[in-house]
Design brief:
Order of helices and strands of chain A: HEHEHEHEHEHEEHEHHEHH
Strand content of chain A: 5-15%
Oligomer: heterodimer
Radius of gyration of chain A: 19 Å
Helix content of chain B: 25-40%
Structural class of chain B: alpha/beta
Shape of chain B: globular
Number of strands of chain B: 18
Distance between the termini of chain B: 21 Å
Number of helices of chain B: 14
Structural class of chain A: alpha/beta
Largest sheet of chain B: 8 strands, mixed
Helix content of chain A: 25-40%
Low-confidence stretches of chain A: none
Mean pLDDT of chain A: 92
Low-confidence stretches of chain B: none
Largest sheet of chain A: 5 strands, parallel
Radius of gyration of chain B: 21 Å
Mean pLDDT of chain B: 96
Chain lengths: 313, 428
């Protein structure tokens, strides 16, 4: 199948470390490019060769299913040589530092490194030590830019625009890099963002990011076009943030009753993996008229293909 | 040693309320023989050739109350010899070293070792602290009395805080009985848990867990409440926030205690952390500009008594890591005076107040006869070119570790000569 490829793409950054660093032109460039790959991914022959001869290394220090497989598939569909390394059981365990790992990999001349790390800023550190572009696949609580981009793409495909929409982000904002990246991006694209969480899961001074904050979910959801749920990140909780999961579900779990406060045509998003019955009612998660969760995964591959293509140049 | 004569210097010695143009005579025994405006060419013997300082400044040798040395255990970060050289290049002639070594300075036998090493390897005056609790575990007190007999002049857990209020009251009782000085790093661990930088928008933006300023305030208020009942010698090592300054201000009228501030918190704020600069991972953390301004004001109105370098040498391997993995602290003894002078040059604080916070105030709190230029005392002093511009470069630092918080910063004012006991041990 013939795909029209944009030539002479210019992006202002060498690396994709966070939405914070991108201009609105950069964002539009990535989103436009992503559109071209959506169709490709739905066709029978999904393979292009625009990254032929390029080497992509996926460096995952944290377990990940969808992001890692999405990046791997994206690279392969563009014809790159993809190497995925799960760092949980390698040199790092033998005491090697991130910088040493970076130097080692750099000596193998990769064209792009995709990194996920549990420490905020790890991708920034890596980018200072290697010659190739670095794509952030999530660093600590800081940013997860490709997730925000795929969320934006999903919203645009459903609602035809982002500007003027009212978007609620609910749940564990404190530990969420997805929330941070989405707040930057959705603000940039002209949406009104409501952030909903119990105070214990709300980052300090988040309102300075230009969002409305709510501890009452019903109020926060009022007239929203998009309801973005976040996973409760139990693995990052170090002390008692919540009394119990059932109480959390009672107050912050998305149920049909609560959803009634949003617009009738509101759509539900979730970056996955979901805790069914904790942050979201399982009926809503599977409601094909409201939930676009599967679509997010599908478009994720397209967004990552666009990012690989643009940042490999 | 030959007798030495200096003339035409601007002498600032807050201990003796001296701030005048004059000279200095050092006797053959390395002690101060005469000082002040009376010492000039008119009343010096004709055969002597005095050194004309041409308006340079003479300050008492600085007394730095918060210094980390890697000995024993971390000699690769800093040893007594390198600390001594770094101190001299910054005009510091007396340092109080923290007990966070390996092993911890918590018993009499290690103090002997330390004093020997300090004496043999360093040329400055070393005053080691012992820990408040054994192994700095915050559970059992050390032997304040026996340690004091060995010459320990202050007790602190250094980077750690006594969390247990009952233990803190017991420590204060003992300190009161024995007349010991206690120095507390104020941080409530439950509130600061996992925190790395100031809690606020920068922490939220960088995705780093924050340390709220209330974590400091709560320990200060707790200790001061205890201090109302148990009147011992108590010092808060470092303040970092406007809230803390406010609390201190209110309580100082009724209770006797003292407090310090790190030059880092006086000069930098959380925005300087920028793109995860690990050299600015400090404890207490850098806070907002309003906090920095409040600290400067606190120094100016003498709510804050002491400026410290919080000199914490860390090797490159401890800092070339992600922010959360990187070690805490910055090397700073060499730049302590020059960076403090920035507050004078920009009109924030009077010169005498700054020098007082670096010399006579710490000496008074520690009850040591240092940080002054009184006649008959050891001639520990530095000569400073107050206007000399220079740029902080890692490669020019004398300390073994190069983790300065102010790399490439332009400073005004530099120590040109440092003397200990009348001996010139540093010269540009």
């Amino acid at each position: 199948m013939a795909i029209k490829l944009n030539k002479a793409i210019k992006i202002s950054q060498k690396h994709l470390l966070g939405i914070q660093d991108l201009s609105i032109n950069d964002v539009n460039l990535i989103l436009d490019e992503s559109q071209t790959f959506i169709k490709l991914n739905q066709s029978k022959n999904k393979r292009l060769n625009i990254l032929n001869g390029k080497t992509q290394i996926n460096l995952f220090f944290e377990p990940s299913t969808r992001t890692q497989s999405s990046f791997e598939l994206a690279g392969k569909r563009l014809g790159a040589d993809v190497m995925s390394m799960n760092m949980g059981n390698s040199a790092i365990k033998k005491g090697e530092t991130l910088i040493d790992t970076a130097m080692t990999l750099n000596a193998m001349h990769p064209d792009i490194i995709v990194i996920r790390h549990q420490d905020s800023g790890a991708c920034n550190l890596l980018s200072q030590k290697v010659n190739c572009s670095v794509l952030n696949a999530g660093d600590g609580r800081r940013e997860h830019p490709t997730q925000a981009l795929l969320d934006a793409l999903t919203i645009i495909n459903r609602k035809k625009k982002i500007e003027g929409l009212k978007i609620a982000i609910c749940g564990d904002i404190l530990h969420s890099r997805v929330a941070r990246s989405n707040i930057y991006l959705l603000n940039m694209l002209g949406a009104e963002v409501n952030v909903i969480a119990p105070t214990n899961l709300m980052p300090t001074e988040i309102e300075k990011f230009g969002v409305n904050t709510f501890t009452d979910m019903n109020k926060g959801l009022k007239d929203c076009d998009i309801v973005m749920m976040l996973r409760l990140q139990n693995e990052r909780m170090t002390s008692s943030f919540l009394s119990s999961n059932r109480e959390y579900y009672e107050y912050y779990g998305l149920t049909p009753d609560k959803l009634d406060h949003a617009k009738p045509d509101a759509i539900i998003m979730h970056p996955g993996p979901m805790n069914r019955g904790i942050e979201i009612d399982t009926r809503l998660a599977d409601d094909i008229n409201k939930s676009v969760i599967k679509e997010q995964v599908e478009l994720g591959v397209a967004v990552r293909m666009a990012c690989l293509k643009i940042f490999c140049d | 040693m030959k007798k030495q004569f200096f003339i035409n210097a601007n002498i600032v010695d807050p201990h003796n309320s001296l701030n005048e143009n004059g000279g200095l005579i050092i006797g053959e025994d390395g002690k101060i023989e005469a000082i002040g405006k009376k010492v000039n060419t008119n009343n010096l013997p004709a055969r002597e050739k005095p050194i004309d300082l041409k308006g340079k400044y003479i300050f008492p040798g600085l007394v730095d109350m918060r210094v980390f040395v890697g000995e024993p255990g971390y000699e690769y970060k800093e040893n007594f010899r390198t600390l001594s050289n770094a101190s001299l290049s910054g005009g510091v002639t007396s340092v109080v070293t923290m007990p966070n070594t390996d092993p911890i300075i918590d018993n009499v036998s290690i103090v002997d070792f330390l004093k020997r090493r300090g004496r043999d390897k360093s040329k400055i005056n070393i005053f080691p602290c012992a820990s408040l609790t054994q192994k700095i575990e915050g559970t059992n007190m050390t032997e304040f009395g026996l340690l004091a007999n060995k010459g320990i002049i202050a007790f602190t857990d250094g980077v750690k805080t006594i969390q247990n209020t009952n233990l803190m009251s017991k420590i204060m009782n003992s300190a009161k009985d024995l007349g010991c000085l206690i120095m507390q790093h104020a941080e409530d661990y439950h509130l600061s848990k996992n925190g790395m930088i100031n809690s606020g928008i920068i922490a939220t933006k960088l995705g780093l867990p924050g340390i709220p300023d209330i974590a400091e305030r709560i320990i200060i208020e707790r200790d001061l409440t205890l201090l109302e009942k148990i009147k011992c010698r108590y010092h808060i090592s470092q303040l970092s926030s406007a809230q803390s300054v406010e609390v201190i201000k209110q309580r100082k009228d009724n209770i006797k205690f003292s407090c310090g501030v790190s030059i880092n918190n006086l000069s930098l704020n959380e925005n300087d952390i920028g793109d995860f600069k690990t050299f600015l991972k400090l404890s207490p953390p850098l806070r907002k500009e309003e906090d920095r301004e409040a600290l400067v004001q606190g120094l100016k109105d003498k709510t804050i008594d002491v400026i410290v370098s919080d000199h914490k040498p860390e090797d490159e391997e401890s800092k070339r890591l992600t922010f959360s993995q990187a070690a805490t602290g910055a090397s700073g003894i060499e730049t302590l005076l020059s960076l403090s002078l920035e507050l004078y040059h920009n009109g924030s604080v009077k010169l005498e107040t700054i020098i007082q916070a670096l010399t006579s105030n710490p000496a008074k709190i520690l009850k040591i006869n240092k940080g002054n230029l009184s006649i008959g005392n050891d001639a520990d002093f530095c000569i400073v070119d107050l206007d000399k511009p220079w740029i902080v470069k890692k490669e020019n630092l004398v300390s073994k570790s190069k983790n300065t918080s102010i790399e490439d910063k332009k400073l005004q004012g530099k120590v040109t000569n440092t003397f200990v006991k009348g001996q010139e041990l540093f010269k540009i």
